[in-house]
Amino acid sequence: MIIESKEALKSYKAQINASKKYSLSLYVCAGTSCISSKSLEIAEKLEKEIYNHGLMADVTVIKTGCFGFCGQGPIIEIEPDKVTYVKVKPADVKDIVRKHLMNREVVERLTYDMTSTDDYEMGFYKKQKRIALRHCGAIDPESFEDAIAHGGYEALAQVLFDMTPDDVISLIKDSGLRGRGGGGFPTGLKWQFTRQVEDEEKYVICNADEGDPGAFMDRSICEGDPHAIIEAMAINGYATGAENGLIYIRAEYGLATKRLKKAINDARKAGFLGKNIFGTAYSFDIELKAGAGAFVCGEETALIHSMEGLRGEPTVKPPFPSENGFRGKPSNVNNVETYANIPVILTKGADWFNKIGTENSKGTKVFALAGNVRNIGLVEVPMGTTFREIIYDIGGGIPDDVPFKGVQIGGPSGGVITEEYLDTPIDYDSLKEVGAMMGSGGMIVMDEKTDMVEISKFYLDFTQDESCGKCTPCRIGTKRLHEMLEKLTNMEGSPEDLEVLEELALNVQNTSLCGLGQSAPNPVL
To answer: Which residues are CB-contacts of 277 (< 8 A; sequence separation ≥ 6)?
Structure first.
């Protein structure tokens, strides 16, 4: 079915919604972490039990993306009852069907344990605002119809029929959206730079490489809402004058790759990718490129070289990819979370988005909350939310009430926030003031038992291993830093070592070629 107008899209959406006939919908988490805990087996057993009890006309099972509350998975949410079951096992399926579906009794033992933190809604979700994650856990990511039913491709139709490319760029600039991959560069300005370069061949690139240890925000969005990424890339292409899209995704992200491939094929069949999108003169298509999981390829020039079949090594900027990118052509690179914000900004407006967050950091940010904290998972909060709110109100605090020591933010390139900074608002400027950085969104909580020298050594072990080796400060400097930390943890250090450690860390920071080397000493410093 080819959709060639806004009216046709609206009619198709109404048709899909009118066909929904079920009294109860069981949303089963089918993200990677829940699948590893047998959620697909749970979904299969649910469908079998529903069939055996003749409930097919009233009950449906929907396999969704990640709900975010990963530490409590597998999760099943039953709508419209607003009942959520956590840590479900295949053996629990019969109770759910017989008690809840047939007798409308809540299976209390599977509800969230309210004795460990506050109420489920109050504790984990109340202070969250889901924009980038808005459809994760709410739709079947492998269903094109479900994406349309939840507003998919309405923003693309809006820009193609009602806006010029300059209108789109102005709106993104007015929204205040900044890149969510770590750099925080204004997205609209980046798009404008690419548009201003005159060339018949341009590229729009999505960075889905996500190399930070413990980070899985981009993976979850690709798994849970792949059509949002495709739609946003097509909008970017229209705004910047590009007809070619590339998604650079880690080869280890098998499920995300599978769902993106299906979404791309479904979008092509509907006429949302390929020639003459929506029957207009605009053409745009997307190709997937697999990465080998190199951390340095999170840097856009290294990423581009990898896609070209070269070693993933960075180059000095300028020239920037907007002028000289993939195959020497103007290229616009944004990460997954940045793209996930685009369609909703177009449909709800720049003013709506601009009112969320702080003066210079608009919107929300997704964090992978992990470590010594009760509630582990994906957290999306308005910019300006404090560390204390995330760790204690959303995260439920530290298990066994062990005293807090620090929180590592920004992955191996970030910094450690200590107790005196717990009330720091999380935005680009405030983090910079306390010697940290947003990064892509890793957030690891550490308690008083954590050895900070061991933590620094762990990150240096990672960054020296991931160094591409192109520049001497990073290639050799990170190795020497790691050796000195090894000496300290072996109880062979001296007070003088700390002075040398700091001096070397600053030299590596100031003289490395790219962001990997420049930020590698941060945990040490």
So the answer is: 156, 160, 234, 271, 283, 284
Quick one: tokens of 355? 């009112």
HEC-encoded secondary structure of 248-265? EEECCCHHHHHHHHHHHH
DSSP 273-305: SBSSGGGSS--BEEEEEEE---GGGGSHHHHHH
**CA separation for the pair 69, 395 (Å, rounded):** 10
Are 368 and 442 spatial neighbours (Cβ–Cβ below 8 Å)?
yes
| Burial of 420: CB neighbours in 10 Å, binned 0-12, 13-18, 19+ | exposed
Average pLDDT over residues 210-223: 88
Give the Cα separation of 28 and 310 in Å (integer).
41
217-224 helix and 226-240 helix, angle to the nearest 10 degrees? 100
- Supply the DSSP string of 19-35, one letter for each residue: T---SEEEEEE-SHHHH
Count CA within 13 A, CB hemisphere, residue 31.
Answer: 33
> Rounded to two decimals, what is the model's pTM?
0.92
Residue with tokens 């103007």: 330
Residue 199 to residue 211: CA distance in whole angstroms: 32
Say whether pLDDT at 146 is over 60.
yes
Residue 484 CA to residue 504 CA, distance in Å, equals 10
What angle is formed at CA 303 by the lines to CA 232 and CA 245, rounded to 5 degrees?
30
User: In the structure encoding, which two tokens stand for residue 470, read together?
Assistant: 């192109």
Q: How many CB atoms lie within 10 A of CB 7?
A: 11
Burial class (CB in 10 A: 0-12, 13-18, 19+), 222: buried
Tally of CB atoms within 10 A around 273: 23
Cα separation, 207 vs 203, in Å, equals 13
Ramachandran assignment for 320, one of left (phi > 0), alpha (psi -120 to 50 degrees), beta (any other) = beta
∠ CA(154), CA(160), CA(164), 5° rounding?
Answer: 125
Query: Which among 292, 289, 251, 256 has a CA at the least distance from the CA of 32?
Result: 256
6 and 161 Cβ atoms separated by less than 8 Å: yes
Give all strands of the β-sheet with 24-29 in edge-to-edge order: 59-64, 24-29, 76-79, 83-85
Query: Do 368 and 211 contact (CB within 8 A), yes or no?
Result: no
Task: Give the CA distances from residue 101 to residues 21, 23, 60, 171, 177, in Å, rounded to whole numbers and listed in that order.
Answer: 16, 10, 11, 46, 43
pLDDT digits (tens, 9 = 90+) for 472-502: 988 999 999 999 999 999 999 899 999 999 9
What's residue 126's pLDDT? 85
Average pLDDT over residues 403-432: 88
- Please say whether the beta carbons of 473 and 397 come within 8 A: no
What are the tokens at 411? Answer: 């992955």
Is residue 130 predicted with pLDDT exceeding 50? yes
Please state which of the ranges 299-303, 347-351, 363-367 shows the lowest mean pLDDT. 299-303
